[in-house]
Design a protein that fits this description.
Structural class: mainly alpha
Strand content: under 5%
Radius of gyration: 20 Å
Distance between the termini: 76 Å
Largest sheet: none
CATH superfamily: Tetracycline Repressor, domain 2
Order of helices and strands: HHHHHHHHHH
CATH topology: Tetracycline Repressor, domain 2
CATH architecture: Orthogonal Bundle
Number of domains: 1
Helix content: over 70%
């Protein structure tokens, strides 16, 4: 008896399963060391089966990065429904970003530390998916900047270039904290703690906001 074809829901679930596994592998060993054969073995399928869902590694990478941003925006949409005052909302956003990085380290790495690839060849990756990823990345940055302007009104009085510099300072500092814990680069300072404690997150964000306020006020 011939096997029944997968339903659209089953196909979508299988694609997500492949991307979930690929995100971990690419974050750990890098895109260029990703073996579709080894990935297939981890998933209990053949490499040719993976190619039925993603025609090449480049396509798998772009779709996986897209899924990372979409998962992040699910968190953001949930946060926005809480209707917090601006400063609390920014604390909440930064805390959720750190939680996201610890819950989905593979996706986080591909979103914010993607491998350098030339994806201009149309036969490798669907241009619509590339544009979707670019839009999501831009929306995420715009959302961050908007939250900073609401939480620290003095930033809004600075030139656009300065606003972007301060937003970059804020997010790169959070990224540094996340990476330090993820790579366990400073074991003496981390004291064997695997996850970033809430009190460190709160203190770190508090320091960042004080620094942003000082920088914005000194620019006037």
């Amino acid at each position: 008896m011939p096997k029944k074809p997968f339903t659209p829901e089953e196909i979508a679930a299988q694609r997500e399963r492949i991307m979930d596994s690929a995100s971990h592998v690419m974050a750990e060993v890098g895109f260029h060391h990703l073996s579709m054969r080894k990935l297939a073995s981890q998933l209990g399928m053949t490499a040719s089966n993976i190619y039925n869902y993603f025609p090449n590694k480049e396509s798998l990478f772009v779709h996986t990065r897209r899924r990372g941003f979409e998962l992040a925006f699910m968190d953001i949409n949930e946060q926005m429904s809480e209707h917090l005052e601006p400063r609390s909302a920014l604390f909440n956003f930064a805390g959720h970003l750190i939680q996201f990085a610890q819950r989905f380290p593979g996706y986080y790495q591909l979103m914010f530390q993607p491998p350098r690839l030339s994806l201009n060849e149309p036969e490798l990756v669907d241009s619509d998916v590339l544009q979707r990823v670019d839009r999501l990345a831009e929306e995420w940055q715009s959302h961050l900047l908007s939250m900073l302007l609401d939480a620290v009104p003095s930033i809004a009085a600075t030139p656009d270039a300065r606003q972007k510099q301060l937003a970059l300072f804020f997010v790169s500092s959070l990224h540094g904290l996340i990476d330090t814990y993820y790579y366990k680069a400073l074991p003496k300072l981390l004291s064997g703690v695997d996850l970033i404690p809430d009190d460190i997150v709160e203190t770190h964000i508090g320091w960042l906001l004080l620094s942003l306020e000082h920088q914005a006020e000194s620019a006037h």
